[in-house]
């Protein structure tokens, strides 16, 4: 039987992505990483650059407009004075940076990247991604870089260029050169851009990426093509081949409960409500959260079992949910396709008995082996509220909390 288990997507810090690119011959800014103000000063001095950029390293966007609880405004700063780097780093490292993408209290900055600041005379957009429509990799580029590419696609679709790559033959010289032309590179820069595009494709294949997005893919006044920033997504199924890269995974910014859930191949996202959602599949999880809200309740979490479920996972999931003091009721919503509902039912009964569940439990099961699952639950003698469908389950879960 096919066993499918959910995995947490790999997240890399900016400096880690840049190092991977540099290791594969892609041109990036020179940089160092520092975890103290003194190291940041030494890094700035070693760069011997006319101007340096200091960037806080957290797994969130909007750093430039963020605010530290030290009082410093902005997680990205430019300066020509190495001593200023030291002073800024003192107000960054060890302090929380709040941006539009972080929790309210922000995220603690443990490292900063000290990089050579380069002027950009022109910005373009370039990406390589796996496209199911053509069953392989596709290059996407636009001479309009440094901005929201989705907006460009809507307002100026003629400025979006796509080129399919035969994964067996690889990227051809003419394809790379044509993309460089489409991006607006001219003269010697055209050949240089084409060479960078080929290196990015080789990187894409070698590290089992599903996407390598460079924005901006720019040129400097000195005539150099540079990848100024990059977002890399990886194929989680290739973890066994990419052990060094996956070992870089930074879990320190996660909530402890998320890391605990990941140990058992569970996907957990904490929310601010009081009704725990225990489901299989991300789409079903979002629908369950929505229907709880529509019925006047508040979801406490998003917990996804995935496909290859075992009883032990169900037990651990209940253990995580019941340890959350916010949880006043649990809604189990399982649609069994790959999932065997009887396995879920056995896991539920074992968890309820051993953990002495003290909050209301509403269960809606549908799909594979559901009759056997319903028999297991009904004969368990446990105070489990059965639901006919998702609407019924949400209504009963919200009502169970209201009775308290």
UniProtKB/TrEMBL annotation:
Classification via SUPFAM superfamilies: Glutathione synthetase ATP-binding domain-like (SSF56059), Succinyl-CoA synthetase domains (SSF52210)
Co-factor requirement: Mg(2+)
PROSITE patterns listed in its UniProt record: ATP_GRASP, SUCCINYL_COA_LIG_3
Catalytic activity, EC: 6.2.1.-
GO molecular function, one term: GTP binding
Residue span(s) of domain ATP-grasp: 18-64
Record keyword GTP-binding present: yes
Reactions it catalyzes: GTP + succinate + CoA = succinyl-CoA + GDP + phosphate
This protein's record includes keyword Transport: no
Record GO cellular component, one term: succinate-CoA ligase complex
Pathway it works in: Carbohydrate metabolism; tricarboxylic acid cycle; succinate from succinyl-CoA (ligase route): step 1/1
UniProt record, GO biological process: succinyl-CoA metabolic process; tricarboxylic acid cycle
Coiled coil (residue ranges): none
Keywords for this protein: ATP-binding, GTP-binding, Ligase, Magnesium, Metal-binding, Mitochondrion, Nucleotide-binding, Tricarboxylic acid cycle
Family recorded in the similarity comment: Belongs to the succinate/malate CoA ligase beta subunit family.
UniProt subunit comment: Heterodimer of an alpha and a beta subunit. The beta subunit determines specificity for GTP.
NCBIfam families recorded: PRK00696.1, sucCoAbeta
Protein name in the entry: Succinate-CoA ligase subunit beta
Species for this entry: Grantiella picta
Native organism taxonomy: Eukaryota, Metazoa, Chordata, Craniata, Vertebrata
């Amino acid at each position: 039987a096919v066993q499918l288990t959910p995995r947490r997507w790999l997240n890399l810090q900016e400096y880690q992505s840049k190092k991977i690119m540099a290791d594969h011959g892609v041109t990036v800014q020179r940089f160092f990483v520092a975890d103290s103000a003194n190291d940041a000063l030494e890094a700035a001095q070693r760069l011997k650059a006319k101007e340096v950029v200091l960037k806080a390293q957290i797994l969130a966007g909007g750093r430039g407009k963020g605010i530290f609880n030290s009082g410093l405004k902005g997680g990205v700063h430019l300066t020509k004075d190495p001593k200023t780097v030291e002073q800024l780093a003192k107000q960054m490292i060890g302090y929380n940076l709040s941006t539009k993408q972080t929790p309210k209290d922000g995220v603690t900055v443990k490292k900063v990247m000290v990089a050579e600041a380069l002027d950009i005379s022109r910005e373009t957009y370039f990406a390589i991604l796996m496209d199911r429509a053509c069953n392989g990799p596709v290059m996407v580029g636009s001479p309009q870089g440094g901005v929201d590419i989705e907006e460009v696609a809507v307002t100026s679709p003629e400025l979006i260029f796509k080129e399919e790559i035969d994964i067996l033959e690889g990227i051809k010289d003419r394809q790379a050169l044509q993309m460089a032309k489409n991006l607006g590179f001219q003269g010697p820069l055209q050949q240089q851009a084409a060479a960078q595009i080929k290196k990015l494709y080789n990187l894409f294949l070698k590290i089992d990426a599903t996407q390598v997005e460079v924005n901006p893919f720019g040129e400097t006044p000195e005539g150099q093509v540079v990848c100024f920033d990059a977002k890399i997504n990886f194929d989680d199924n290739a973890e066994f081949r990419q052990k060094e890269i996956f070992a870089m995974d930074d879990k320190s910014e996660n909530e402890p409960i998320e890391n605990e859930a990941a140990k058992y191949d569970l996907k957990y996202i904490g929310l601010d409500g009081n009704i725990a959602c225990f489901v299989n599949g991300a789409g079903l999880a979002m629908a369950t959260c929505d229907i709880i809200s529509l019925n006047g309740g508040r979801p406490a979490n998003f917990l996804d079992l995935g496909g290859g479920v075992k009883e032990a996972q169900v037990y651990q999931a209940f253990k995580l949910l019941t340890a959350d003091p916010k949880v006043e009721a649990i809604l189990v919503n399982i649609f069994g396709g790959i999932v065997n509902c009887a396995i879920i039912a056995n896991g539920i009964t074992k968890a309820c008995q051993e953990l002495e569940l003290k909050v209301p439990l509403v269960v809606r099961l549908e799909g594979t082996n559901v009759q056997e699952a319903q028999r297991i639950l009904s004969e368990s003698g446990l105070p489990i509220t059965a639901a006919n469908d998702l609407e019924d389950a949400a209504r009963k879960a919200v009502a169970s909390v209201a009775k308290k």
